[in-house]
Amino acid sequence: AGLLVDAEQFGSQQVTRNYHLRGRIFQVPSNYDPDTRTYTGLWDGTLKPAYTNNPAWCTMDILTHPRYGLGRRIGVADVDKWALYAIAQYCDQQVPDGFGGTEPRMTLNAYMTSQRKAYDVLADFCSVMRCMPVWNGSRMTFVQDRPSDSAWTYTNSNVV
Fold it and tell me: Which of 67, 74, 82, 145 is the most buried (most CB within 10 A)?
């Protein structure tokens, strides 16, 4: 990318430049539109390349990318993409932004410039989504802290 500007347009003024960068292209679900943050129909488990700042798909990338992630040791089959799919949908829900509009519940815009321990990076990415990475014996899955129906109600009548 480059920028070509005629210096005569600005005279002796120093030009201030600002950029809005979109970062990496990640693998996202084939039924996901990252611009509208919507999921259409049922997901068949396939992925497509697209830009997103959804922390679930950023986490999938850091786990499976062979150059800067754990991809030499962990493949896509070793990650519970179905758990990430449910987490991603929760992250993409629109919530009030405090100014009369809405914004996605959770986003991740990371700029990593130094080498760190893999688990520390994974824990940081997961903290954005309020979730924990868990190795279930066969693959990496994720448990998210989010509202859900109660699984069991404890009362005096069912406690010994």
Answer: 74
Q: Judge contact between 92 and 57, C-beta under 8 A.
A: no
Distance CA 87, CA 131 (A): 9
Contact 94, 38 (CB under 8 A): no
DSSP 8-class letter at 151: S
Q: Is the dihedral of CA 124, 58, 81, 138 positive or negative?
A: negative
37-64: pLDDT as tens digits = 999 999 999 999 999 999 999 999 999 9
What is the rounded distance in angstroms from the CA atom of residue 74 to the CA atom of residue 109? 23
3-state secondary structure of 98: coil
The tally of CA atoms less than 13 A away on the side-chain side of residue 56 is 28
